[in-house]
């Protein structure tokens, strides 16, 4: 059964001005898409993030099989027509990606976030949230300082505790999903209801899960899965720290599939914005024009030019 997801706007007046409605959507978009480099040392390790109108950060992923359909969006064609799944994301992941696990120097947030200025606009970013994973040096601060003026230094113990809490929350979610799947088999669980009895697949918050010990095989399996999920949001040195916490070998996860990079997906999504598309395509020749020019050159090579003169020779003495 085909499923569709819609963004519904608030109720409009009885006689809405549709042109004004479209202009508002362009001037004040519901979502702002951007690319976040998880690890500056690995160019392919990027994620697509979205900032909504409430200044909350969301992780953007494509779900479903790749290349199953194409959608027409405005006047453009999106080759990858998979649905976009947006989930709330802790903005501190962005800050952790800029901090070094081996450095003891305090650095300005202005310098650390020079390429991600949108981070300061997020509603969840404040002095308390930053101090939950960093030590703040207030000796450099002016009287009327802002968050971007803070000098911070990574506190390894705080970040290890913060990462451990993320893992434990993921373990609880993975365990609850496994228990629900065992109780109610889902034949069409991507969105909505099952095909058999049309009951919702939403996890029941009233179900109490048993307490798990560190030696429980299910708990160990879910912990490995949780650490593997967080690998996509951490750069190398912090992922190594996370593996040390749970005594997991980094090499056991294997190599990352690079068949389709996140930067390629972002380029596909950014085709909605024609200004960005024109800026990216400026100065680049299409493959068709290259083939046509090479064909013209090959035809000129076959022409016999013996005895002919150039135009320049007629004007020379």
Automatic annotation (TrEMBL):
UniProt feature, compositional bias: Basic and acidic residues: 281-290
Coiled coil: none
Biological process according to GO: RNA catabolic process
Region (Disordered): 281-303
GO CC annotation terms, alphabetical: nucleoplasm; ribonuclease H2 complex
Superkingdom of origin organism: Eukaryota
InterPro entries, A to Z: RNase_H2_suB (IPR040456)
Protein name as annotated: Uncharacterized protein AlNc14C2G369
């Amino acid at each position: 059964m085909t499923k569709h997801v819609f963004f519904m706007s608030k109720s409009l007046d009885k006689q809405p001005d549709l042109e004004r409605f479209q202009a508002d959507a362009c001037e004040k978009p519901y979502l702002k898409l951007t690319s976040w480099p998880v690890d500056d040392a690995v160019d392919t390790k990027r994620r697509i993030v979205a900032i909504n109108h409430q200044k909350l950060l969301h992780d953007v992923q494509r779900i479903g099989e790749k290349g199953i359909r194409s959608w027409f969006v405005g006047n453009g064609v999106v080759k990858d027509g998979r649905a976009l799944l947006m989930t709330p994301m802790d903005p501190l992941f962005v800050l952790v990606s800029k901090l070094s696990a081996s450095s003891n120097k305090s650095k300005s947030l202005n310098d650390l976030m020079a390429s991600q200025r949108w981070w300061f606009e997020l509603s969840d970013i404040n002095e308390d949230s930053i101090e939950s994973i960093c030590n703040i040096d207030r000796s450099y601060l002016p009287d009327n300082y802002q968050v971007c003026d803070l000098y911070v230094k990574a506190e390894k113990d705080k970040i290890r505790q913060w990462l451990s809490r993320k893992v434990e929350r993921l373990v609880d979610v993975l365990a609850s999903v496994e228990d629900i799947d065992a109780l109610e088999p889902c034949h069409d669980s991507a969105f909505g209801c099952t095909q058999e009895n049309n009951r919702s697949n939403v996890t029941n918050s009233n179900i109490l899960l048993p307490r798990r010990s560190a030696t429980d095989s299910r708990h160990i399996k879910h912990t490995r899965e949780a650490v593997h999920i967080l690998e996509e949001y951490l750069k190398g040195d912090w992922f190594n720290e996370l593996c040390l916490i749970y005594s997991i070998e980094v090499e056991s996860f294997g190599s990352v599939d690079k068949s389709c990079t996140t930067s390629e997906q972002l380029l596909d999504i950014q085709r909605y914005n024609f200004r960005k598309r024109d800026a990216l395509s400026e100065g680049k020749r299409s493959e068709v024009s290259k083939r046509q020019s090479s064909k013209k050159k090959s035809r000129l090579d076959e022409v016999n030019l013996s005895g002919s003169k150039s135009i320049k020779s007629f004007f020379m003495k």
